[in-house]
Amino acid sequence: MRLTDDEADAYRRDGYLVRHAVFAAGELEALRVAVEEVVAHVVARARRPESQTPLRLPDGRRIQFSSHTAIQWEWREEAPAVRLLEPFTHLDARFAALWRDPRVADPARDMLGVEAVAPFTCKLNLKRPHEGSEFPWHQDYPYWYVRTPAHAHEIVTAILFLDDALAANGGLRVLPGSHHAGPAPRDRREPTGFLADPDRIDARREVLVEAAAGALLFLPALLLHRSTPNTSDRQRRAMLLSFQPAGRPPQVDLPWMPERVAELP
Length: 265
Known about the structure:
Strand order of the largest sheet: 1-11-8-13-6-5-4-3-2
Mean pLDDT: 95
Structural class: alpha+beta
CATH class: Mainly Beta
CATH topology: Jelly Rolls
Distance between the termini: 37 Å
Oligomer: single chain
Radius of gyration: 18 Å
């Protein structure tokens, strides 16, 4: 499962790598069933009368903490769907096993240049039909920086597509080579301070990553990327596992200090 020389060269040059048909149809179906079971359970617990009410973030998004995970609800108030759970692998043993799966972990080891990797964080991304919202241009780096500024660049994310990822259902778009430029200028007009400034991005260079279910996409922390809304009648579910060198604490054990983002360009 280690990188070939050609893959390593492409990853260094472009800042992303896709491996197709990594997971078989039966594995994917089992994971999809588990995802829907877990999401239904988390939503049921979150909607109990005694549960914490959702918080409203500065950009209008709703977030709620339940089942030892952060639930991001869809941005539109009238949309009841979950768009993201973070973390999520603790919610089912089949998810937790992915951290040890050599198909996922071995490429991450090579990309980080280490012999052993450990979890940093993980997300279950749900773009439901006709409801899945967009996510503007950003790097993962600022989100990692406010937790671990010295090591934010040493995190790589593996994305396992549980459904076909296409333009119509909110496929991911990347800006090849953008990771070489370091932290991107942030958009000072948006309230969170984490998103990249779209006026300083040459979007003509973007590449739509279309991949069938079972593919793995690997991204470093500094690659610019975005996703479009799911305007189709198809699901676009994905699991994101972010790896770091072994021996470092996971994100949940690090302080959340969003004011640190002001230190970035």
